[in-house]
Design a protein that fits this description.
4-stranded parallel sheet; 5 helices; about 20% strand; 4 strands; alpha/beta; about 50% helix
Amino acid sequence: MANILIVEARFYDHLNDMLIAGARSALEDEGHSVEVSTVPGALEIPAAIALASESGRYDAFVAIGVVIRGETYHFEIVAGESARGIMALTIDGLAIGNGIITVENEEQALARADASRKNKGGEAATAALALLELRQKFAR
């Protein structure tokens, strides 16, 4: 059993709740323990994961958030930089599933967050577990 931390950017409550439910279900169905930590926005997720990893309490991480395109360039910065930060941590050896969805509108977000549709939260959790398994395999 692994201890998994879900780090969520709590901005769109109803969408985050759906993503977390999908991730939690995928992890708990496999017998893993789950904790959730909340940060203000998607840009803070990589930093929170880096800080949490220093504790040694977590085996893997799931990043959860929703970034919906607005009228400014801010969307590109948040989407790109949060993904870059997560990728850098993953390359450094952390097992992270990226469940930050980046969409044009709320309809697209709902389709991706809903566990009965695209279930991106569950997919991110499954990705985190796959990376954890690979890390354990190569550590032998």
